[in-house]
Automatic annotation (TrEMBL):
<feature type="transmembrane region" description="Helical">
    <location>
        <begin position="386"/>
        <end position="406"/>
    </location>
</feature>
<keyword id="KW-1133">Transmembrane helix</keyword>
<feature type="transmembrane region" description="Helical">
    <location>
        <begin position="158"/>
        <end position="176"/>
    </location>
</feature>
<feature type="transmembrane region" description="Helical">
    <location>
        <begin position="106"/>
        <end position="126"/>
    </location>
</feature>
<feature type="transmembrane region" description="Helical">
    <location>
        <begin position="249"/>
        <end position="266"/>
    </location>
</feature>
<feature type="transmembrane region" description="Helical">
    <location>
        <begin position="25"/>
        <end position="45"/>
    </location>
</feature>
<keyword id="KW-0812">Transmembrane</keyword>
<keyword id="KW-0472">Membrane</keyword>
<protein>
    <recommendedName>
        <fullName>Fenitrothion hydrolase</fullName>
    </recommendedName>
</protein>
<feature type="transmembrane region" description="Helical">
    <location>
        <begin position="287"/>
        <end position="307"/>
    </location>
</feature>
<feature type="transmembrane region" description="Helical">
    <location>
        <begin position="327"/>
        <end position="348"/>
    </location>
</feature>
<feature type="transmembrane region" description="Helical">
    <location>
        <begin position="188"/>
        <end position="209"/>
    </location>
</feature>
<feature type="transmembrane region" description="Helical">
    <location>
        <begin position="426"/>
        <end position="443"/>
    </location>
</feature>
<feature type="transmembrane region" description="Helical">
    <location>
        <begin position="72"/>
        <end position="94"/>
    </location>
</feature>
Amino acid sequence: MTPLSGTVEAHGIGGQADLPISLELAVSGAVAALVVSFTVLVVAWQRPRYDGGAHPGRPAPAWLDRVTGSTAFTVVLRTVGMVVALFAAMTAVLGQDTLTNPFFGIFYVWWWVGLVFASALFGPVWRAISPVRTLHAALTRLTGSDVDEGPLRYPDRLGYWPAALGLFAFVWLELVSTHSAELGTVRLWCAVYIGVMLIGGAVFGNRFYAYADPFEVYSSLIAKLSPWARVEGRLVIRSPLANLATIRPTPGLVGVVAVLFGSTAFDSFSKSTFWIKTYQDASVSKFLLDNVALVGFCLVAGLLFSIGSALTPSRADVPRRMLARNYAHSIVPIVLGYIVAHYLTLFIDSGTQTLARASDPLGKGWDILGTASLEPSYWFSYHPEVLATIKVLAVVVGHVVAAIAAHDRALSLLPKRDQITGQLPLLFVMVGFTAGGLFLLFSS
């Protein structure tokens, strides 16, 4: 993560010395929790509970359903999204080319990290406020064309692959590029993103955003862990596990979760003493090594999960090449757990600092929002034991929820005779992810 000037680079766990427990004990406890959870599931959870959209949930309060389903609410959200986007554009174009420009915090902290937390709490936030959807709707109205349908139909075989590529482009800029802290570079990235989105929407309609917009796909996947859903047009409250099970096994889904999981793991790894010593002693540039490592982490995450999925038996009507897609929804809780563990303090501290700087967007000494005097408290920096506990729990809970989701899906896919032993390959992969993830958090 690109640090903002004047902030503590607080998204790492701070090293093993900050923890009230040893690395060995944390990993042992986490693996034990995962294995015990699996054992309990095998005994107590013997039929699929969420397959095929079961558990529609209970209706939300009628007034909340009316408000959130109204046209006025949609217009308000679109307006808020557009105003924030225009404000960010102003800071990008007219603001100072320094890290005190709030544009960097809006881009790296509010947009990338804040969007995840908001989606986990409230649902698919980016779909609701997306300025590219708003611009697309305005353009189609001006031209008299259909907002949902373009001249061409979005190819099913592409699935989420464009979103996976877009997400990789973002994490590459954030973690590898040597120009990630330069205003011109980030401004260009945003311009390319907006251009591609508007062209894609013009060609394929709104369906393009649901599959190819990296931020909408990311937000919508994380939103499946929220307690909110719309079923047949009605707002309901239901288990996040029920929401999670509605993620369709779409092409590119494995690629998306592999990029998200692998890039977060690389971010931890890149701060480790081992990696710092490696590139300091290497005969090639750090830039080259970081490129290879980022691609490697994403590929290894995807391959390990795909191999573990492919090694599980399946019904005759489910091709083996489709298994990884069918189980990929179970990686979403792991991704959220790692985002919480890795970026919690960054979001709180740097997010607060960004809000203060947003009051003076052009560096003129203004206080237009009345927030210029805000200062991060760095509370977690003074309570490392609390921070460490939250981070370890986030990783463990994410993996346990993932194990539950994978188990429920396995009961639908596995032949009756293999419904216990057939899940072991994926369990081994989950155990490896848990141990590896905690090791990286401790070593960063």
